[in-house]
Design goal:
The complex is a heterodimer of chains A (417) and B (170).
Chain A: H1 3-12, E1 22-26, E2 29-33, H2 34-46, E3 58-61, H3 71-86, E4 91-93, H4 100-106, E5 115-118, E6 132-135, H5 138-147, E7 149-153, E8 157-163, H6 172-183, E9 192-196, H7 198-202, H8 205-213, E10 222-225, H9 229-235, E11 256-261, E12 268-270, E13 278-280, H10 281-284, E14 291-294, H11 296-299, H12 302-312, E15 322-325, H13 330-338, H14 341-348, E16 351-352, E17 373-376, E18 392-395, H15 398-407
Parallel strand pairs in A: 2-3, 2-5, 3-4, 5-6, 8-9, 8-11, 9-10, 14-15, 14-17, 15-16, 17-18
Antiparallel strand pairs in A: 1-7, 12-13
Helix pairs in contact in A: 2-3, 2-5, 6-8, 12-14, 12-15
Chain B: E1 4-11, H1 18-21, H2 33-37, H3 48-51, E2 57-60, H4 72-79, E3 84-87, H5 92-100, E4 105-107, E5 120-124, E6 129-132, E7 137-140, H6 146-153, H7 157-162
The chains are: A alpha/beta (417), B alpha/beta (170).
């Protein structure tokens, strides 16, 4: 069996499962945030259950509308905090802890072999740790809290082999953009992906999380990485429960295998309004930008902050650009302070935004006006996501965003590295 | 759940994402389903909610509902009282959300190219048959697994859970 099959077999109490089969599974963790958590709470309440059977299964992380900007958010967040108290939910992280997909592994709520559902599509980030982590709707999450289980269709698994070595300011983000460019946004619909290869072996967990995070943009149910020493090093001191990692059996036959080599990979940009529309930076270089953003559940990790600092050090953000940087979590923010990275950002003229979803989840984010262009380390460039319907989002690596902020136009980070 | 659905077709292309079906800028206002539904499809068709009638059917291409897990996308279409959504393929969370809120979602890759906006369809959910009443062509949707039929038969996941299918205290 493959990783995803082994996890679903374990969670459904079966010896073996096969792709296409539908199984009822016990879910280890339900993750929610303030915005979807409010909706989940309303759904849970309408099920008419007085006491949540297993509140320790639930992890609530306030990251979307924090601090609340709309009065409706403030009111509903208050209700959600009361709900958390009423049901004695102990895994509650108030605003400032960071983006849920970063906080979840940092605080040890995702572990190799676990089955995690979250009310956010980028829950797939947990796949970096060899977990089956996937997004669900509010009602479904409420159902899992009520019942403890939900159904899954066992997905086929495709394998993506990434060989070669990244050079200079080319990052894991560029790898996932390369995969989107070549395979499109539908290659993995209803399927699991396993990422492997020498570039994956060499990659930090920060890089693996960036790729797992965007596996949903390939249509995937989950994007998985086999565990190695780096995984254990990351989780050491964070996960305080026993777990059994699972890896795919060596003789498995894959639904499909795709090979990539990143030796000569250059920085890439996903242009509006579809993530398949990926171009080399050289193709779109020179386009004027008005906003540059680094952070989010895709590009707000320590490695991303260090890369941005390296490019911004001793330089100034272009006066026509508003640059916003959001460290992904309080832990990352703290480390950035320790390393002088925040100082570098400040000196460069960037605005530091608090840890959370701010720059990518509309509602609290800075918005784009008519025809404005934003280059961002986020994951989605959908039409109208950050403001006016005529505005444009270019998705790139933190290195490319930093270089572009300095130049005032989409720029190749290799010029600044 | 009504097994026979009849309605007029609203046609959409590929990769219609959840930011189109339920724009993010309204999410932190926690609107009621009826209010929220007024913004369905707003980025590409601001008048959609005014034009659509109960029972109407969306027919779309690949990857309909890709993107966010926001249930508001499925809730918006349900609140407009659409009869069903048919697509060549769906974003998986959106698909589950449709079923969970009691909105039939069917796969029928053959249909998209052979239907025009304004055509009238009749769907037999039990049999998976889709008839284009305007062109008199027949199509077969991919069969829905038993679990999905059961959830739809209860009007969605809430009804399914409350029907005693397993809310437990373990």
């Amino acid at each position: 069996m493959k990783i995803v099959e082994k996890i679903l077999a374990r969670a459904s109490g079966k010896e073996k499962v096969i792709p296409g089969e539908i199984v009822e599974c016990k879910v280890d963790v339900v993750m929610t945030n303030d915005r979807s958590g409010v909706r989940m709470m309303d759904r849970f309440n309408s099920l008419g259950i007085d006491r949540m059977p297993d509140p320790d299964r639930l992890v609530v992380i306030f990251d979307h509308d924090v601090p609340p900007k709309a009065i409706a958010s403030a009111n509903k967040q208050k209700e959600l905090r009361e709900f958390i108290k009423k049901h004695q939910v102990k895994h509650y992280y108030p605003m400032g802890a960071g983006v849920c997909h970063q906080v979840l592994p940092e605080k040890g709520h995702v572990w190799p072999g676990s089955l995690v559902v979250g009310t956010d599509s980028h829950t797939v980030t947990g796949g970096a740790f060899g977990a089956l982590a996937t997004g669900v709707g509010h009602l479904e999450a409420a159902g899992v809290l009520a019942k403890g289980t939900t159904w899954f269709r066992v997905p086929e698994t495709i394998r993506i082999v990434i060989d070669g070595k990244l050079s200079g300011p080319v990052m894991a983000k560029d790898i996932i953009l390369l995969i989107l460019q070549r395979l499109g946004t539908k290659v993995a619909l209803y399927k699991a992906i396993e990422f492997t290869g020498e570039a994956v072996d060499a990659m930090s967990l920060d890089g693996r999380m960036a790729i797992a995070n965007m596996s949903v943009e390939l249509g995937a149910k989950c994007g998985l990485f086999a565990v190695d020493q780096k995984t254990f090093d990351f989780l050491d001191g964070r996960v305080n429960r026993p777990f059994t990692p699972v890896v795919s059996d060596p003789d498995e036959i894959w639904e499909e295998t795709y090979h990539f080599n990143v030796d000569a990979l250059e920085p890439l940009v996903a242009c509006p309004h579809n993530l398949e529309n990926v171009q080399p930076v050289a193709q779109v270089g020179g386009l004027e930008i008005h906003q540059a953003a680094i952070g989010t559940c895709t590009g707000g990790r320590l490695e991303d902050m260090r890369m941005a600092a390296r490019i911004l050090h001793g330089r100034r953000v272009h006066p026509d650009v508003r640059m916003i940087i959001t460290p992904g979590s309080a832990e990352i923010y703290h480390q950035c302070l320790e390393e002088g990275i925040i100082h570098t950002f400040h000196q460069a003229g960037a605005i530091i935004h608090w840890p959370g979803c701010g720059i990518c989840a509309a509602g609290i984010s800075p918005v784009l006006g008519v025809g404005e262009r934003c280059i961002s380390a986020q994951n989605r460039n959908f039409k109208g996501r950050l403001g006016d319907g005529t505005s444009e989002i270019f998705v790139a690596s933190p290195a490319t965003v930093a270089a572009s902020a300095v130049k005032g136009q989409i720029a190749d980070p290799r010029e600044f590295y | 759940m009504n097994n026979i659905i009849r309605g007029r077709v609203w046609k959409f292309g590929h990769d219609i994402d959840t930011d189109i079906i339920a724009p993010a800028i309204y999410l932190n206002k926690y609107l009621s389903p009826k209010e929220s539904a007024l913004h369905a499809m707003e980025p590409i068709d601001p008048d959609f909610s005014k034009k659509v009638k109960p029972g109407d059917i969306i027919v779309a291409g690949e990857n309909f509902g890709c993107g966010s897990s926001r249930e508001e996308a499925a809730v918006n279409l349900k609140a407009l009282e659409l009869g069903a959504v048919i697509a060549s393929s769906f974003g998986r969370i959106f698909y589950r959300n449709c079923i969970n809120v009691g909105l039939p979602a069917l796969y029928c890759p053959d249909l998209t190219a052979k239907v025009n906006e304004g055509d009238h369809l009749e769907i037999d959910l039990q049999k998976g048959l889709i008839q284009n009443l305007t062109t008199e062509e027949n199509f077969t949707a991919e069969p829905m697994p038993e679990i999905i039929m059961s959830i739809l038969a209860c009007g969605g996941l809430e009804g399914y859970l409350q029907k005693g299918s397993g809310i437990s205290n373990t």
